[in-house]
Amino acid sequence: MDYLKTVVPSQLMAERGANLVVINPGSTNVRMGFASQDVPFNVPHCIARHKSDAGKLSVRDQRLNCRAGSTHNAEREKAYDIIASLLKIPFLTEVSSSENQPLPPKMGRVDGISSQQNKDDNKLNWTDVLDRSIKSSTSIESSDADEDPLQSTSDGGNRPNSEEIKYKEMIFGEDALKIPPSAPYCLSRPIRRGHFNISQNYQLHQVLEDLRTIWNWMLIEKLHINPKDRNLYSVILVLAETFDNREIKEMLSIVLGDLGFSSAVVHQEALAAAFGNGLSTTCVVNIGAQVTQVVCVEDGVALPHTALALPYGGDDISRCLLWVQHRHRTWPSFKTEPMKRPMDMLMLNKIKEAYSQIRSGSFDAVAHVHSYEHEKSVGQQKTRLSALSVPPMGLLYPRLLIPEEYPPPPRPWFQDCDDMLEDTWQTNDGVSGNGGLGAWDNYQMLPTRLKKFDNIGLVEAIVSSILSTGRVDLQRKLFCSIQLVGGVALTAGLAPVLEQRVLNTIPSNQPVERVVVLQSGRNPLFIPWKGGVILGVLDISRDAWIHREDWIKNGVHVGSGRKYKDSYFLQSQIMCYYNA
To answer: Is residue 145 in some structural domain?
Structure first.
């Protein structure tokens, strides 16, 4: 420990970080990189496999029940009216009377950044799904970006006969999301809403195989680590609190067994986020793409009883943006379907990232909207987007977002009673019912939280989490140390709105006078990953590391009689390593 106090952070990174790989898997993206890197690779967490028997692109597990019935639509309209009133946004009847005005008073740039950028900068190009390394008797000419990459012979193109076509077997990351609708592929996302994306048509073994394949591809293509050299490297898994013990076990088996790393350690995402910003006591608010988590950390230890998970995130804000435009009748006559076409969701996410902010008054912007319904010719239209402050306010009024509902995963696979767990699972309701001392076992599972907190807003979640600590001195510290992480944390105007509303929501009998949302010096999207780097490099708790041979043999720690779950509860020293 004396060495850690005197060593230069850059030197420590160079000494210990070169052989450490940090993996932070999320529902939509996976962040992976060497501990010696400043930022990780951030890649969409998906894979598309070629299906010879498929006529067109299919998206696995899209048999959803969208909760947009008459009751939910009424709730959504009511939530919109409340937000519009608070932000002083004119109602539709007021807007219609001023439609002759050339532009609204507050207008964003076409590209959200600079007026010098080309109008096609936000346009996405289809992925070339043909394997160009295969020579065929009929040449396959590269098509223009605006043309159909799978142009049929009926169009008079140069497409070869079907027996001469060679498709790429697998496509990863963003390229997988940009596959043309007519291409014979199946797109799969192994994680959704903070859990394995298990369903009747996406079994556990397929989910695990996809995770293995995606991570292996990133290790080879992004980090350039060959399988034969993996025994020289260790892995830090930075995992969200939403994952069940069985899911964590399976991910450990992937990195230690299938990918062949020499050792691994699991760190909680909330704790890693605190260390990533150099904090020891904080309320971590992690707004991801599909799940928002609130967890309090005290003196370098995440408090399990404060953890809340809310079933909405950045993807829901993007879909809400589309709904708001349809409501205002500003969206072009394109058939935009983000739940069926990944390209549409990519476009909406780009628009959200460029313009999303919370401000008083009507804030509109001019943007080019593209149609990806037909890959042969991508339509586009310049349009005025209205009420852009409304969608991010859905974090405070979640009835506005209406998250989609997927069939619940089959629970029998979760009933794991092997020797890895010290306590017996109570599986009547699919969650742990014991009063075990392990921090992760004490967590309520996400499905239980969703039933209980389905309609709770972010402000109420923060107040509930902090007040659950039960100590006035700690509550005061936490209310003055609220930390926003995740991509949505970049939303302009979100922090001051949270400060004001959290302060107003605290019960009057609580002696709290101030609420502070801290400004982050790093990109909030990568803070949990960076915190995992710091925790791994400092190597605070050596007993937490699991070695490959011992995991494969019996899953216990080297030289320790402790079981699997004990590795999740990190008793760490308070170390501010923010400038590392």
So the answer is: no
Percent of the chain with pLDDT over 70: 69
Over 50: is that where the pLDDT of 365 sits? yes
CATH code of 370's domain: 3.90.640
- CA dihedral for 326, 27, 392, 79, sign (positive or negative): positive
- Tell me the C-alpha distance between 452 and 450, whole Å: 5
Structural domain range at position 29 = 2-46+193-270+529-568
pLDDT the model gives residue 450: 33
Give yes or no: residues 297 and 348 share one domain.
no
Say if residue 264 is in the same domain as residue 304: no
What digits encode the pLDDT tens for the residues 233-251?
Answer: 999 999 999 988 889 989 9
Q: Among 204-208, 474-478, 569-573, where is mean pLDDT lowest?
A: 569-573
Q: Rounded to the nearest 10 degrees, how much is the dihedral formed by the CA atoms of 460, 465, 470, 475?
A: -80
Last residue of a domain, one of 343, 367, 400: 400
404 CB-near residues (< 8 Å, 6+ apart): 64, 65, 66, 67, 339
The answer to whether position 153 is within a domain reads no
Q: Where are the alpha helices (DSSP H) in 284-389?
A: 314-328, 342-355
